[in-house]
Every structure is written in structure tokens, then in C-alpha cells.
């Protein structure tokens, strides 16, 4: 062998004749079953290949590959394994000169076939399969970086390679003592190597056979194997390509829209797992497409559940829907929406929240929804999705993160008759406002926690200036709903508490106290409400005034609240949260007239807080629900200015439908011309420091903000 190697290196032009001779001998020995000589000839070919790297090696390689092919075609497992081992050695050689005419199609097909070997002896079967895996690994290494070779990423090759690897990844084989690693470990390593070498344009061809394999073998329903496959894929490919895999999964989910709920749930579960892994990269340019697809699947599932079939129920052979499976799918989709949202930065999460809100049917505006039950189910599912998106949402600027286009329709749901929808909306509001995980603290004993109100930021002040009255109004009106339960009142308390802790300035504290006292009046006057609701509103008011008294730390205010609570504990304990906000509330059959020392006094509170610098005049004014922040005791001039501000704000922030409805009443052209060209009468009184009367200005001379001018 040493002499032959020396001769080949000395006279490289003889290599092709040496190869041809060894190839001829090996073919003859295989045919005559002289396997000892076959091994010798193959060893000689291997050693010459490893030693010679001259330009004329190409012709020798052709002889070598012909012999490997001959061995792989043989019936004997040992010859197949021998041929594979030689090919793997060859695959690890970096050739100096490119080859323009070499084809590996046969090797891809044959190694894939070996991966599926069904040889009777389990040990030999495992060896053949492992040889097939190593062979495919060799083909990939040899061709993946050589632009002159046939493209290994073409579907004709990937459709053989990938299913062969997945088959071995899925099928446990008995481990042989001599092998260093099991077939599954070898397969996974090979699969990771293949994916790691995939460039941007090749991801689709590498992933599509995986989807087809999982479809053909019904592997989505079990979830475990499908999740494992895509975990390998997501961790192996380059992170900047992750969104391509997600896109393919979403497309596959769409393609399976009419498949069984268990299949769709399996795909959704895989998407959820993939999203978490992708967080290190990015979802790419398709953020809203991701949520659009998931929301579409959610809506389809609701339709299937309510209609009972995938197609028109009159069509022959339509599949029967299993409601519990559709419910499981819906939960899986909602969980996946949360998984995706958790990977997004704040600004993108705000966009997604707006996007989902735009999909929620608003009562009376979407007659095309079909039955009321369909609309309700879709509202509930989308609100649950929104709740998932808001979980852990943190922003320093509430005004930009929660614009009116999001907050207005959300708050409108707090006034719906449906108790479940109202509770979901309250939970969403709590999730958005609670930026420091204070919810549980607010719901426990305040005196132990010693909560403090941090100074409100400028952005939070602006947010409350714009939206506070709307929030208070919805809290007040939501308390009046007859079908509210314990959960609703606890959520209302948590919401008020979090507004106080997270967003309160001095003016907000005053308004919140007025709101709590207004709730007490509501419980006293609304006798048509159920007894539980009236007791719960009293308890809500008491719990909240207790919280706010401890946060403001004004001794006389704390003392008054404490005295009222003590009086209730002795006489009317069913007006306190301890007796009401429990699973089995202790309430009387009928609520007698409540009066005297068991009620909080607006006059006393205004007096005690007024001495500590709070606005006592405002505190003494009863709260009346307002749409926007209208101040109390206002002059005619201030009222007119506020009216104008409200008009401007409405046209800036209100939904188009509301503006259209408001402007629907036709006004005669003559009246409109008079309004534009004739100045209105001057209001009485003077402006500024009393110098000169205020001068009326015609509308056409008024300076409007740029935002209002087109």
C-alpha cells in the first residue's frame, strides 16, 4: 500500500488508471462473493483518496464513487455499511478543484432508503439505519457549500432527506454496544447540522417536508413530537430566519382550517412554543399578520362550535364537531396570543392591543355577525385574547400607549348587560394600570403593607386629566348593574385602588373620594337593586375609603373612616367587605334604612382634608358622572370654554360612527351661514384683569388648532 501510494503521488496522471483497475477488480470480487478482496480494494481506494489531492483526482473520484455505488446496491448489509463508511470519509475531504458533472442523486435516494430499513435482525437494522443517517450527513456536507453541485435544498432532495431523519428521530431503536451514540442522538445531530447550514432562501424547502411528515403520520394530535421537532428547528436555524418558520406554521394552520380541532390545536401549540424561542430574534415584519391569523382561527372555532359542523350542515359527509375539543383549541389560541405578545416591545404591544380591539364587535354596529350568541362568544374570546396581551404590560407613557381609540371602545364594554364581558374588561383595565404588581397588595390588609403613593409623573397626570372622568363614570355606572357578582365588586375595588396607587395626584385623590361617597349614596337611593348589590356597593365604598385614608395619612380623616368601620362592625357587618366579598356572603334578606354613624360624612371628610391642603370646596361637591373632566361651580364663560374644548376633543378622538351620528341632524343652509358670518352676542362681564369688555369674534376669524384644519 505504501509503494502504491508513493507511485500515485509521484505520477498523479496514472491515478485514473489505478482507480479504473481497482474498480474493475472490486466489481469482479463482489460478483464472485470474495468479500475479503472487496475490503482490501476498498481500503486501497480510501487510502489513495486521502493521500492524493492533485488536480487529476476528479477522474479517480468517479471510479471511487462507482465502487461505493456498487457496494450500496449489494444485498449484504456489511457491504452497504462498508460503502457508507467510505463515502463519509470522502465527504470530509475538501477537494482542490471543483467538479462540474458529478451527481449525488443516487446517494440521496439510497441513503434515505437505508434510513427506513426493515431488516429482520434488530441490531443489523439499527446499523443500516445509522449508516443511512451518516450517509445523508455526508451528502449534505459535500454539497451544501459547493455552488457547482446539484442544489441539495431542492424539494426533490429535501423531500427524501428530511422525512428520513424524522422517521429515525421518532422511532426508538435498540442501542448497540459498539456505537458511541444512539440512532436518535445521531439523527438529531444530523438534523441540526442540516438546519444550521440553511440560508434565508432555503428555510422554506427545509421546513415544508417537516409539515408534510407530521400531516401524513397524524403527529400533530399528540403534540409532543411536533413540538420537539420545531424546538430543534428554532434552536438550529440562524435567529434572523426565525420569523420565516413562524410564517410557514401560520400558513399551515390556515391550510388546516377545516381539519379537526385536535390537529389545529397541535399546530397552535407548536406556534406557541416557537414564539417563546423566537423572542431572542424577532417576529419580523409580520407582527399583525401573526395575530390576524390567530384571531381568524379563534373566530372560525367559535363558528364551528355554534353551528356544529365545518361546512354547511346540509352538505353530505360533513364532519361532526366536538365542542370540548373546540374549547381546548380556543384556549390554546388565546395562550399562543399571550406567548407572542410577551416577546414584543411596548410600542408593538400597543399596536396589537389596538388591532385586537378593532376586531371586537361593538354592540349594534356589526349586524353581519349573525346570531347574538355568535357575537357574544366572539366578544368574549377576543377580550380574553386582549387580556393575555395586556399581561405584564408596562409603559412609562400611558397617554400614548392607551389612546382614546383603544380606551373608549374598551370602556363601552363595561356598560354591557353581559356580566362575563364586564368582568373581562375590568381585568383588562387592572392589567393595564397595574405597572408595579400592586394588585395583590391592594386586595390584602393595607395597614400591614404600608403602601405609599409615588409622585405621579407628568405623563400620568396628562393621562388622568384626559381620561379620569371617563374612568370614574364607568366605575360608577358599572356598580349599578344588577347582575354583578362578588368578582365584579372586587375587581372594581382593585381598579380604584390601583388608580390611587399608580396614577393619583391631589386632584385625582379628591375626585376618587367624591366617587366613593357617590357610591355610598347610590347604595342608599337605588332601592331597586338586589340586597347583595347594595351591601356590596357599601362594602366597596368602605374598603376604598379605608385604603385612601391610609395612603393620604391625614389623622382626622383616618379617624373618621375608622369610626364608621367600627360602627358597622358592631351594628351592620354586612356593609363591610369581610362579610360581603366572600363565597357565602352574610347578608340580610332585606336592607333596612341605613343612617347615622354607620355612614361616611361628606361634610366631615371635606373639613378634615381641607385642613391638610386638599380642595375642601371640591370635596364638598357631590360627584355626578361626567364624560370628560368638567370642573364644578363654574362660571358661564368657563362653561362655554369647556363646551368648545369638548367639541374639539370629540372630533379628535371619538369614533367616526359617533361623529356621523352626532352630525346627522341636518341644519338649513341659511342658519349655517348666519352662524358663520354673524358674530355671537358678547357674554356679560369682563376678561383678564377687568380692562375692557370681551370682544366677540366671527367664526371665520377664529384661530383653530392645526389638528382641526384640513
TrEMBL record:
Coiled coil: none annotated. It comes from the Eukaryota. It comes from Pygocentrus nattereri (Red-bellied piranha). Gene3D superfamilies: Leucine-rich Repeat Variant (1.25.10.10). Belongs to the EFR3 family. One of its GO terms (cellular component) is plasma membrane. GO terms for biological process: protein localization to plasma membrane. This is EFR3 homolog B. Pfam families: EFR3_ARM.
Amino acid at each position: 500500500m505504501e509503494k502504491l501510494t508513493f507511485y500515485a503521488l509521484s505520477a498523479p496522471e496514472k491515478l485514473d488508471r489505478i482507480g479504473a483497475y481497482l474498480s474493475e477488480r472490486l466489481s469482479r470480487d463482489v460478483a464472485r462473493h470474495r468479500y475479503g478482496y472487496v475490503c482490501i480494494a476498498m481500503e486501497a481506494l480510501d487510502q489513495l483518496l486521502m493521500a492524493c489531492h492533485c488536480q487529476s483526482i476528479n477522474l479517480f473520484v468517479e471510479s471511487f464513487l462507482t465502487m461505493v455505488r456498487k457496494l450500496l446496491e449489494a444485498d449484504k448489509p456489511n457491504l452497504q455499511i462498508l460503502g457508507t463508511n467510505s463515502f463519509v470519509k470522502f465527504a470530509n475531504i475538501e477537494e482542490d478543484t471543483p467538479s462540474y458533472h458529478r451527481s449525488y442523486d443516487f446517494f440521496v435516494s439510497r441513503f434515505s432508503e437505508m434510513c427506513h430499513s426493515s431488516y429482520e435482525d434488530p441490531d443489523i437494522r439499527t446499523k443500516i439505519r445509522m449508516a443511512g443517517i451518516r450517509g445523508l450527513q455526508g451528502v449534505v456536507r459535500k454539497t451544501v457549500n459547493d455552488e457547482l453541485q446539484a442544489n441539495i435544498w431542492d424539494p426533490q432532495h429535501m423531500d427524501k432527506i428530511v422525512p428520513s431523519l424524522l422517521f429515525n428521530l421518532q422511532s426508538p431503536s435498540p442501542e448497540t454496544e459498539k456505537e458511541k451514540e444512539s440512532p436518535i442522538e445521531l439523527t438529531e445531530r444530523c438534523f441540526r447540522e442540516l438546519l444550521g447550514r440553511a440560508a434565508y432562501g432555503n428555510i422554506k424547502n427545509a421546513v415544508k417536508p417537516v409539515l408534510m411528515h407530521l400531516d401524513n403520520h397524524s403527529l400533530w394530535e399528540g403534540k409532543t413530537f411536533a413540538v420537539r421537532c420545531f424546538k430543534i428547528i428554532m434552536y438550529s436555524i440562524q435567529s434572523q430566519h426565525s420569523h420565516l418558520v413562524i410564517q410557514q406554521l401560520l400558513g399551515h394552520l390556515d391550510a388546516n382550517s377545516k381539519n379537526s380541532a385536535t390537529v389545529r390545536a397541535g399546530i397552535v401549540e407548536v406556534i406557541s412554543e416557537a414564539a417563546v424561542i423566537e423572542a431572542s430574534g424577532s417576529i419580523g415584519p409580520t407582527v399583525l399578520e401573526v395575530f390576524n391569523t390567530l384571531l381568524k382561527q379563534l373566530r372560525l372555532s367559535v363558528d364551528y362550535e355554534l353551528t356544529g359542523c365545518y361546512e354547511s350542515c346540509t352538505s353530505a359527509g360533513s364532519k361532526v364537531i366536538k365542542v370540548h375539543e373546540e374549547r381546548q383549541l380556543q384556549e390554546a389560541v388565546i395562550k399562543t396570543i399571550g406567548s407572542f405578545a410577551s416577546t414584543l416591545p411596548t410600542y408593538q404591544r400597543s399596536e396589537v392591543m389596538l388591532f385586537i380591539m378593532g376586531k371586537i364587535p361593538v354592540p349594534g354596529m356589526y349586524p353581519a355577525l349573525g346570531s347574538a350568541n355568535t357575537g357574544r362568544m366572539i366578544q368574549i374570546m377576543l377580550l380574553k385574547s386582549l387580556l393575555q396581551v395586556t399581561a405584564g404590560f408596562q409603559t412609562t407613557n400611558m397617554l400614548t400607549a392607551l389612546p382614546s381609540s383603544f380606551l373608549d371602545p374598551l370602556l363601552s364594554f363595561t356598560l354591557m348587560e353581559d356580566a362575563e364581558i364586564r368582568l373581562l374588561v375590568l381585568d383588562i383595565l387592572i392589567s393595564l394600570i397595574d405597572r408595579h404588581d400592586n394588585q395583590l397588595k391592594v386586595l390584602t390588609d393595607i395597614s400591614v403593607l404600608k403602601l405609599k403613593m409615588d409622585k405621579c409623573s407628568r405623563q400620568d397626570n396628562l393621562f388622568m386629566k384626559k381620561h379620569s372622568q371617563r374612568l370614574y363614570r364607568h366605575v360608577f355606572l358599572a356598580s349599578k348593574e344588577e347582575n354583578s357578582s362578588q368578582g365584579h365588586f372586587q375587581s372594581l375595588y382593585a381598579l380604584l385602588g390601583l388608580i390611587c396607587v399608580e396614577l393619583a395626584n391631589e386632584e385625582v385623590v379628591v375626585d376618587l373620594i367624591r366617587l366613593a361617597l357617590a357610591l355610598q349614596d347610590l347604595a342608599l337611593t337605588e332601592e331597586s337593586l338586589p340586597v347583595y348589590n347594595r351591601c356590596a356597593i357599601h362594602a366597596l365604598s368602605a374598603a376604598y375609603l379605608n385604603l385612601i385614608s391610609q395612603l393620604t395619612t391625614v389623622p382626622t380623616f383616618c379617624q373618621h373612616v375608622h369610626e364608621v368601620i367600627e360602627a358597622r362592625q358592631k351594628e351592620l357587618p354586612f356593609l363591610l367587605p369581610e362579610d360581603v366579598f366572600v363565597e357565602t356572603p352574610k347578608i340580610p334578606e332585606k336592607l333596612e334604612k341605613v343612617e347615622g354613624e354607620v355612614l361616611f360624612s361628606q361634610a366631615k371628610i371635606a373639613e378634615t382634608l381641607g385642613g391638610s391642603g386638599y380642595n375642601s370646596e371640591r370635596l364638598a361637591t357631590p360627584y355626578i358622572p361626567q364624560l370628560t373632566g368638567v370642573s364644578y361651580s363654574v362660571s358661564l364663560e368657563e362653561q362655554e370654554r369647556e363646551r368648545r374644548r369638548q367639541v374639539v376633543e370629540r372630533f379628535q378622538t371619538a369614533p367616526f360612527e359617533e361623529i356621523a351620528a352626532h352630525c346627522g341632524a341636518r341644519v338649513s343652509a341659511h342658519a349655517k351661514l348666519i352662524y358663520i358670518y354673524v358674530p355671537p352676542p358678547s357674554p356679560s362681564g369682563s376678561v383678564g384683569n377687568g380692562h375692557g369688555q370681551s370682544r366677540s369674534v366671527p367664526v371665520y376669524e377664529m384661530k383653530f388648532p392645526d389638528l382641526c384644519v384640513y
